[in-house]
Design the sequence.
């Protein structure tokens, strides 16, 4: 049960509740379900998405005592938490597990990539009727921008439609870099003027466009027109923002820091994500890897796990050293897990019944292994964590009430998190 804090905010809240006929018991019941938003614990989220479905057995939840057809071809190593083991290719993360919450009992039951990605980006099952907004778009809508930076950024690009604004106005879509920070030719679009356009010409064009847009919007109001205007304004703001230009400039980082993260795709992307959080971005989606290992699982894991291990551990440690981890929620997720048994092609197939994710900072417990799978990682054996509960908890950490509603087309109210409950046992 939640503690009653003797703050002015709580007293006012209770006074309001009494005025509408709610008892103290009613308030506490709503509070425990997450229907009352508290003070935010996190200012930003870095959402690292391992698309394709990383195998829980070859990462966060190895089964060293299972039969070889379930255990697979990799060994496991001890971590900082006694009795907890990770894949042998994750030595860096094993050393920082005392700063993580590792969830070994995520479940949604979907085995299709598109549906799984949709669930893990929106908290909702796909619908033929409603296009649900992604987490980043909801955060953008609810919290707005901060420090002259876009509130929601896709790094390097939007993963698919599931990570878009859904039924929300398209101005709440994420800003996509259009270039990979791991590339030597990395350059963020919209952060500079075309070579043939002087600042004076640019100002004149903007004034003319503003004049035309103002008249047009007054005559023909609508979301598409407003959105177009918002996009132009965002582009102008970015072009003239020295803060944004500095945030995107990885050359400002020490060579030793870049080495710590690793000179890899995921290392460069996570380092840039940290810089963007420092600058004020609220939600950053980072994509890394190809994890759909139906065949040749061993070389695929050997290729992708070590860079991820190094970069993820570096990010968590770096945020902590800078005093930022407390206010930054880091999530390493995927759309589903893999089958308990190795198939005839030396791979594993899709498996949504149970899988693992990791979270750190932003109000999450430290050194917590939450839930468990059974002996062969086929089913949740303890404390299954549903997607509605997980997304409600995530929103709660940002100060967003998951039971609030957004208005979908047709004046249809849709809960931000579909009937989820805040899992307070996961929180500090």
Sequence:
């Amino acid at each position: 049960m939640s503690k009653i804090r003797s703050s002015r905010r709580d007293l006012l809240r209770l006074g309001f509740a009494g005025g509408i006929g709610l008892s103290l018991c009613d308030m506490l019941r709503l509070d425990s379900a997450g229907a009352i938003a508290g003070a935010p614990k996190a200012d930003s989220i870095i959402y690292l998405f391992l698309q394709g479905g990383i195998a829980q057995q070859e990462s966060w939840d190895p089964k060293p005592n299972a039969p070889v057809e379930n255990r697979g071809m990799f060994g496991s190593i001890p971590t900082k938490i006694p009795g907890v083991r990770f894949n042998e290719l994750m030595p860096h993360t094993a050393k920082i597990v005392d700063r993580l919450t590792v969830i070994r009992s995520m479940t949604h039951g979907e085995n299709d990539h598109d549906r799984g990605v949709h669930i893990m980006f929106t908290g909702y099952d796909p619908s033929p009727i409603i296009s649900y907004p992604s987490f980043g778009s909801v955060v953008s809508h609810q919290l707005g921008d901060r420090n002259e930076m876009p509130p929601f950024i896709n790094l390097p690009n939007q993963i698919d439609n599931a990570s878009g604004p859904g039924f929300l106005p398209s101005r709440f879509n994420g800003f996509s870099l259009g270039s990979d920070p791991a590339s030597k030719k990395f350059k963020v679009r919209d952060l500079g003027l075309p070579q043939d356009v002087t600042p004076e010409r640019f100002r004149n064009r903007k004034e003319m466009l503003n004049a035309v847009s103002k008249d047009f919007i007054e005559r023909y109001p609508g979301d598409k027109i407003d959105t177009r205007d918002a996009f132009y304004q965002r582009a102008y703001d970015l072009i003239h923002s020295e803060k944004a230009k500095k945030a995107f400039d990885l050359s400002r980082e020490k060579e030793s820091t870049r080495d710590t993260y690793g000179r890899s795709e995921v290392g460069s992307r996570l380092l840039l994500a940290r810089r963007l959080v420092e600058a004020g971005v609220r939600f950053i989606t980072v994509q890394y890897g190809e994890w759909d290992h139906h065949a040749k699982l061993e070389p695929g894991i050997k290729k992708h796990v070590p860079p991820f291990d190094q970069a993820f551990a570096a990010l968590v440690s770096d945020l902590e050293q800078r005093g930022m981890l407390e206010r930054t929620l880091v999530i390493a997720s995927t759309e589903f897990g893999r089958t308990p048994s190795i198939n005839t092609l030396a791979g594993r197939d899709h498996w949504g019944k149970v899988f693992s994710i990791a979270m750190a900072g932003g109000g999450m417990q430290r050194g917590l292994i939450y839930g468990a799978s059974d002996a062969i990682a086929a089913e949740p054996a303890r404390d299954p964590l549903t997607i509605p509960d997980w997304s409600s908890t995530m929103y709660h950490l940002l100060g967003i009430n998951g039971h609030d509603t957004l208005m979908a087309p047709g004046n249809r109210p849709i809960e931000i998190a579909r009937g989820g409950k805040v899992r307070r046992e996961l929180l500090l």
In short: Confidence is low (pLDDT under 50) at residues 1-20. Residues 297-321 form the longest helix (25 residues).
